[in-house]
């Protein structure tokens, strides 16, 4: 670990579909908060931020915009850690109480990752001696995914790559191709867990070391990355599709007009070329 400590920005998926399994949500949120505490307790120079995303909003659980207000010690716990836990619990309760009917199965994770990038950038600007912070983003996801935020994800990943911010991803349940691409593009870890009971152990073992320390560890080699793109018509990942030559929009089938840039496709072009060659 470097002496300057590291900044960990956690992006946590809190889609209301978790509420269908009460034991699951308990274990999930406990693991997330325990890992945030673990990171802070590891070094007094370490900083943590938590951003939650559900189907209709993203929100900073910690730190809060109103500023720090550390209470007196309770139950023998460290005041600072107690303050972090209470802040997270309060904001989460408020966020979950406002949840109404849910039609969208996917959380707004791409927006939350964007906010995480902006947060680390702002911390760098606020440093008295301008320098690159030892920071990383950790995305923890459970809900099922579609390709509806495909462009937002890709734009976020390219921005992260440009500013040198690694995005780690820990997915519970089935693999998530889009987040796997993000970890690969930005130089972070990707891991898919079968069960939520493995979450805390995996976070501590795999995601605690910072980027500089990881180079010295003998981590398992990355798996092959699913680099499929999502089509712009149905927002599903496609193996093979048509690409607009003007704006690079992807379509899963032949369309007469590009819905992004309004270019009309000349479907008779291959025939014209064939005729020219014969002359
Ligand atoms: Zn389509
Ligand atoms: Zn186009």
UniProtKB/TrEMBL annotation:
Chief localization: nucleus
Single GO BP term: regulation of DNA-templated transcription
The entry's keywords: DNA damage, DNA repair, Metal-binding, Nucleus, Transcription, Transcription regulation, Zinc, Zinc-finger
GO cellular component: transcription factor TFIIH core complex; transcription factor TFIIH holo complex
Pfam families in the cross-refs: Tfb4
Biological role stated in the UniProt entry: Component of the general transcription and DNA repair factor IIH (TFIIH) core complex, which is involved in general and transcription-coupled nucleotide excision repair (NER) of damaged DNA and, when complexed to CAK, in RNA transcription by RNA polymerase II. In NER, TFIIH acts by opening DNA around the lesion to allow the excision of the damaged oligonucleotide and its replacement by a new DNA fragment. In transcription, TFIIH has an essential role in transcription initiation.
Quaternary state and interactors: Part of a TFIID-containing RNA polymerase II pre-initiation complex that is composed of TBP and at least GTF2A1, GTF2A2, GTF2E1, GTF2E2, GTF2F1, GTF2H2, GTF2H3, GTF2H4, GTF2H5, GTF2B, TCEA1, ERCC2, ERCC3, TAF1, TAF2, TAF3, TAF4, TAF5, TAF6, TAF7, TAF8, TAF9, TAF10, TAF11, TAF12 and TAF13. Component of the 7-subunit TFIIH core complex composed of XPB/ERCC3, XPD/ERCC2, GTF2H1, GTF2H2, GTF2H3, GTF2H4 and GTF2H5, which is active in NER.
Protein name: General transcription factor IIH subunit 3
Native species: Halocaridina rubra
């Amino acid at each position: 670990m470097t002496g300057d400590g590291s900044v960990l920005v956690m992006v946590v998926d809190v889609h209301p579909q978790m509420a269908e399994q009460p034991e699951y949500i308990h274990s999930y949120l406990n693991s997330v908060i325990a890992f945030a505490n673990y990171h802070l307790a590891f070094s007094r120079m370490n900083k943590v931020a938590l951003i939650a995303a559900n189907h209709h909003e993203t929100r900073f659980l910690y730190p809060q915009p109103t500023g720090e207000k550390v209470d007196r010690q309770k139950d023998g716990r460290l005041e600072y850690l107690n303050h972090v836990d209470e802040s997270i619990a309060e904001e989460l309760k408020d966020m979950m109480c406002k949840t109404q009917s849910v039609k969208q199965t996917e959380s707004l994770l791409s927006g939350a990752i964007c906010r995480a990038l902006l947060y680390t950038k702002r911390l760098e600007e606020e440093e008295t001696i301008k320098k690159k912070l030892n920071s990383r983003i950790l995305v923890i996801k459970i809900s099922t995914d579609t390709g509806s935020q495909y462009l937002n994800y890709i734009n976020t990943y390219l921005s992260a790559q440009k500013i040198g911010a690694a995005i780690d991803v820990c997915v519970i349940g089935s693999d998530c191709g889009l987040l796997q691409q993000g970890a690969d593009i930005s130089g972070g870890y990707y891991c898919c867990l079968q069960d939520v009971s493995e979450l805390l152990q995996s976070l501590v073992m795999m995601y605690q070391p910072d980027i500089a320390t990881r180079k010295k560890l003998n981590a398992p080699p990355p798996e092959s990355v699913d680099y499929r793109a999502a089509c712009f018509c149905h927002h599903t990942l496609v193996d093979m599709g048509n690409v607009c030559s003007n704006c690079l929009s992807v379509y899963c089938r032949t369309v007469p007009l590009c819905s992004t840039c309004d270019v009309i496709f000349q479907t008779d072009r291959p025939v014209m070329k064939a005729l020219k060659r014969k002359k």
